[in-house]
């Protein structure tokens, strides 16, 4: 046994013989120990196993996976086997060479030492008992001893699981990498940007990991490239970018760096955009007591890429400017430049929220919430500025499900009972309502309820939109009056209704009569009529613009920011783009505007 153990220990890197072993309390004694390397332990409570990773003398990495509830001793035995496996393989491959060389006289070898092959020590130097479960034994700061090789255990250190740059890079537009960090946050990571040395493509020369200076000098550090978001200048047109990211956490722990290179070079931007002049009014984040609010239908990619969109709805739009990556460049720059406190978006693709907008706006200080439409790939997103608000609660609903099941709508269900066709049409719609209650970070007594929706789009469905509005307002009333009575309402969205419609009148006036013309759906087989009321005093903060949607065959005002007129007032409305700017490329979307809608922006304040 001891002969086998001594052979195993001799095979391990850095082992130096000593004639002293363990002292009386189980701590190491009389052993000359080299500097510690790191052993990474990944232990997640929701997973049955943990993993232990460590480097061995030949430069390779060993990883052991064990049950979290298993006694430590079994894991240590497995680590001893894995640590010696590489040495055994090396012996086998050089067997002939070893036979040709004279070996040492066994009689001259020192006697084997009573040292364990592998042991785990607590930070105070005492051996951790082998009957302790793995999940308790492997703690941050413990020391794994393999022969004389020591490894400082780091439990769940920050680790990059994904790092990717956007496919489309435009000069003058922010590049927001997709960063996924386990046991950390992108906000705490270290970023370093590099540019291709002109005339020396980095891909051809190759790059080295971690330092960003590999590839034989093909990459050079980009000026000002030490932030999470990097905006390439015109001087970088034609060059590729590389990002080196070091994962970190709030405790200052760091994981191994990782790098990502752009798939293509930086391209020239489109020139003047429709939102450039608007940014002159929103250069800074609003001060205390003000809330800059944005609502914007950003045109979902699943709608922009249809054959109908390319040939019928937007035939005037250059095909490349309908591509998602291109439009995302414009959208990120536009939204970042508004320095908003609250942003309500409609037609947000799930993947766009997760992979693009969410990470980008997070980098600009905004926290994002998402509500997917039922059986759809797009939905609603609400963002709020982290240093001005904290989220108290969410109360999102699917409008059709709420109508069918929520006791709040029992009266409405009763009114619809004799209009089965209309009720069925409402139940077939996938529209959702996103409701978030926020609390001011500077004045906790101030709360605000932010609602976001996108109503049924069909021009011949005003009665459906009236019912959807009634469901929304009844739900919001429950949240505001019953749960947060001091929270004024901001109700944003694409309501698919012009100011002349019953929906707009209903929200603005607090009631709708049963004889309103919108109850008779124009050209639809179904119709109904009923009187509805709501308790809010709401007004359109941005008034009634000539249009917020401008496409080849239609233009009109469909989007609104409705506010509680009893508690909030408008400080300023950010002017919309001029008609000349909107129609420079005939209509929207265009090479200079990412959507067929226009964002509404206003600064609000408490009365």
From TrEMBL:
Residues 250-261 have a biased composition (Basic and acidic residues). Signal peptide: none annotated. InterPro entries: CCR4/nocturin_mRNA_transcr (IPR050410), Endo/exonu/phosph_ase_sf (IPR036691), Endo/exonuclease/phosphatase (IPR005135), PDE12-like_N (IPR048821). Residues 157-267 form the 2',5'-phosphodiesterase 12-like N-terminal domain. Residues 207-218 have a biased composition (Gly residues). Residues 84-110, 201-224, 247-268 are annotated as: Disordered. Residues 85-98 have a biased composition (Basic residues). Residues 295-597 form the Endonuclease/exonuclease/phosphatase domain. Pfam families: Exo_endo_phos (PF03372), PDE12-like_N (PF21171). PANTHER family: 2',5'-PHOSPHODIESTERASE 12 (PTHR12121:SF37), CARBON CATABOLITE REPRESSOR PROTEIN 4 (PTHR12121). This is 2',5'-phosphodiesterase 12.
């Amino acid at each position: 046994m001891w002969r086998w153990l001594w052979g195993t220990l001799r095979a391990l890197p850095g082992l130096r013989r000593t004639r002293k072993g363990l002292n009386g309390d189980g701590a190491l004694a009389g052993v000359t120990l080299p500097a510690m390397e790191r052993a990474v332990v990944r232990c997640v409570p929701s997973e049955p196993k943990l993993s232990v990773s460590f480097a061995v003398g030949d430069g390779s990495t060993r990883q052991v996976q064990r049950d979290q509830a298993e006694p430590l001793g079994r894991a240590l035995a497995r680590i001893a086997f894995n640590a010696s496996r590489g040495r055994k393989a090396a012996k086998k491959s050089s067997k002939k060479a070893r036979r040709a060389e004279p070996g040492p006289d066994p009689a001259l070898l020192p006697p084997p030492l009573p040292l364990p092959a592998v042991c785990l020590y607590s930070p105070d130097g005492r051996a951790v008992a082998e009957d302790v479960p793995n999940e308790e034994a492997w703690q941050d700061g413990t020391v794994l001893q393999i022969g004389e090789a020591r490894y400082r255990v780091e439990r769940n250190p920050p680790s990059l699981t994904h790092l990717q740059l956007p496919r489309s890079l435009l000069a003058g537009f922010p590049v927001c990498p997709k960063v996924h960090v386990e046991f950390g946050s992108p906000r705490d990571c270290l970023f370093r940007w590099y540019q291709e040395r002109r005339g020396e493509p980095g891909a051809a020369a190759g790059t080295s990991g971690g330092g960003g200076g590999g590839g034989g000098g093909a990459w050079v550090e980009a000026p000002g490239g030490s932030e999470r978001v990097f905006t390439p200048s015109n001087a970088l047109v034609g060059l590729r970018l590389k990002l080196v990211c070091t994962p970190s956490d709030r405790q200052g722990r760091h994981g191994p760096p990782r790098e990502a290179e752009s798939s293509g070079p930086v391209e020239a931007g489109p020139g003047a955009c429709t939102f450039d002049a608007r940014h002159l009014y929103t250069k800074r984040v609003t001060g205390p007591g003000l809330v800059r609010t944005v609502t914007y239908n950003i045109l979902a990619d699943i709608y922009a890429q249809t054959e109908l969109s390319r040939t019928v709805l937007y035939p005037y739009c250059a095909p490349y400017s309908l591509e998602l990556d291109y439009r995302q460049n414009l959208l990120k720059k536009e939204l970042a430049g508004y320095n908003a406190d609250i942003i309500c978006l409609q037609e947000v693709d799930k993947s766009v929220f997760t992979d693009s907008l969410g990470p980008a706006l997070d980098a600009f200080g905004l926290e994002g919430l998402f509500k997917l439409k039922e059986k759809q790939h797009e939905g609603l997103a609400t963002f709020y500025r982290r240093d001005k608000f904290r989220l108290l609660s969410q109360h999102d609903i699917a409008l059709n499900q709420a109508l069918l099941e929520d006791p709040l709508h029992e009266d409405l269900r009763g009114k619809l009972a004799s209009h089965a066709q209309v009720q069925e049409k409402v139940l077939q719609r996938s529209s959702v309502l996103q409701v978030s209650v926020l609390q001011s970070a500077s004045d906790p007594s101030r709360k605000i309820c932010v609602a976001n929706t996108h109503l049924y789009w069909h021009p011949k469905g005003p009665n459906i939109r009236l019912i959807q509005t009634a469901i929304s307002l009844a739900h919001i009333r429950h949240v505001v009056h019953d749960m947060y009575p001091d929270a004024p309402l901001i109700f944003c969205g694409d309501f698919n209704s012009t100011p002349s419609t019953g929906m707009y009148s209903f929200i603005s006036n607090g009631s709708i009569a049963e004889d309103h013309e919108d109850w008779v759906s124009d050209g639809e087989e179904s119709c109904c009529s009923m009187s509805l009321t709501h308790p809010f005093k709401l007004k359109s903060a941005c008034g009634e613009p000539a249009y917020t949607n401008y496409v080849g065959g239609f233009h009109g005002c469909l989007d609104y920011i409705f506010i509680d007129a009893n508690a909030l007032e408008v400080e300023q409305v950010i002017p919309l783009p001029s008609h000349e700017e909107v129609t420079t490329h005939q209509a929207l979307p265009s090479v200079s505007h990412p959507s067929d809608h226009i964002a509404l922006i206003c600064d609000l304040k408490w009365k």
